[in-house]
Amino acid sequence: MDAENSQVYPWQEQVWQNLTQRFPNMGHGLLFYGKKGCGKHAFAQHFIAWILCLNKQPNSACGECSSCLWLKSDTHPNYVHISTDEDNKKQNAKIKIEKIRDLQPFVQQTVEGWRVIVIEPAEALNMASANALLKTLEEPGDRVVIILLADHYLKLPATIRSRMQHFALDRVSHAQAQVFLEQKLAPALHAQIPLLMGLANDMPLQVMQLSQAEWLKRRADFLLDWQKLVMQKSMPMQYASKWNKELNFADLMTLFEYLLSDIICVKLNQNVKNSDLDFSTISTQYSLEQLFALYTDIQEFKQLIEQNVQSNLAVDQLFIKLMNVS
Question: 3-168 in CATH: which number?
Answer without folding.
Answer: 3.40.50.300
